[in-house]
Amino acid sequence: MSGFEEIFKRYEGNPILTSENWPYKVASVFNPGAIKFNDEFLLLVRVEDGQGYSHLTIAKSKDGKRNWQIDSKPTLAAEPELGEDKIGLEDPRIVWLEERQEYIITCVSFFKGVTGEPPGISLIATKDFSNFERLGRQLIPPNKDASLFPKTIKGYYVLINRPIVEGRADIWVSFSKDLNFWGKNRALILAGHKTWDSSRIGLGPPPIETPEGWLIIYHGVRNTASGAIYRVGLALLDLESLEVIRRSRDWILGPKENYERVGDVDDVIFPCGAIVDKKTNELFIYYGAADLVVALATANLDDVLTYLKKCTEY
Ligand code: BMA
């Protein structure tokens, strides 16, 4: 199961984080959000405990690859008084929102008191990753795989999300003036037809602004006779209209290494965080591998855009 285009290179020290690195007892660590903070690479890692519930914990490193300093206790957990079920918080995405001068974390929380505790979206604001303001639930469940764009577009905050509509799991977008009331919801990127991404798709890391458009890294799922396979694809959106300009026909990263193929959930590559090193133009993608460990893949951002510009059919 190798990729067709070798634009992304797996870090040779993968996996970069496992449950064995954790300062307290945990079952698995995966699907981290990522951002540059105080000149360091900061990961907000989804951590699953022995009960099977998830919380989020910060890990920091100077080079984004080695010597991770991991917080000695959970950073963020579900808050039942906000209506979040104790099942946990999952799959964070982080943006620096210029207009508000703060970071906004989007994560999955579960609706307490609704039959089946469906997944939904919670927003959390912070300026320093020590003090957090809970902005509460957004949109109607079931919904997940959400992130804000890092800036307003035509005066609106823009939230990518993934509702389930008529059984379909496509990537949608919603608009707001206040990060609370959302409207003008519309489908943005549709799951493929009979393709590697035909069963479900969802946003990976937050959109990345480039001169060519918003770079979208997304996960696509195909259900097979031996289970689902989670792979990664790319798209480019117009900076203003958000129309899809380009989309990779083929997946660009799929489970290949042992730590991606075998874990708590086999054959899963699930990225939630990406960082562009402004000096080297290197794109770091942090992903959960097989719902068990955290791994890193890198590419030159120009190579990624050159590849996408060649993608004319999908
Ligand atoms: C998705 C999410 C992810 C998970 C993936 C594979 O639906 O729940 O958190 O990594 O499934 O199990």
Any overview of this molecule?
It contains 2 helices and 22 strands. 4% of the residues lie in helices and 48% in strands. It has one domain: Glycosyl hydrolase domain, family 43 (Tachylectin-2, Chain A, 5 Propeller), CATH 2.115.10.20. The protein has 314 residues and is mainly beta. The structure holds beta-D-mannopyranose (BMA). Beta-D-mannopyranose binds next to strand 6.
Structure in a nutshell:
The protein is mostly beta strands.
The CATH architecture assignment turns out to be: 5 Propeller
Q: Main sheet?
A: 5 strands, antiparallel
Number of domains: 1
Q: Ligands bound here?
A: beta-D-mannopyranose
Strand content: over 45%
The tally of helices reads 2
* Tertiary shape: globular
The CATH homologous superfamily:
Glycosyl hydrolase domain, family 43
Please mark out the parts with pLDDT under 50 across 5 or more consecutive residues, or reply none.
none
Task: Write the SSE topology.
Elements (H helix, E strand, L loop, with lengths): L8 E2 L17 E10 L2 E9 L5 E8 L7 E2 L19 E8 L4 E9 L8 E8 L5 E7 L4 E6 L8 E9 L2 E2 L1 E6 L6 E7 L10 E4 L4 E3 L2 E12 L2 E11 L6 E4 L10 H4 L7 E9 L4 E8 L3 E8 H9 L5
Antiparallel strand pairs: 1-22, 2-3, 3-4, 4-5, 6-7, 7-8, 8-9, 10-11, 11-12, 11-13, 13-14, 15-17, 16-17, 17-18, 18-19, 20-21, 21-22
Bound molecules: beta-D-mannopyranose.
The site of beta-D-mannopyranose has 9 residues, from strand 6.
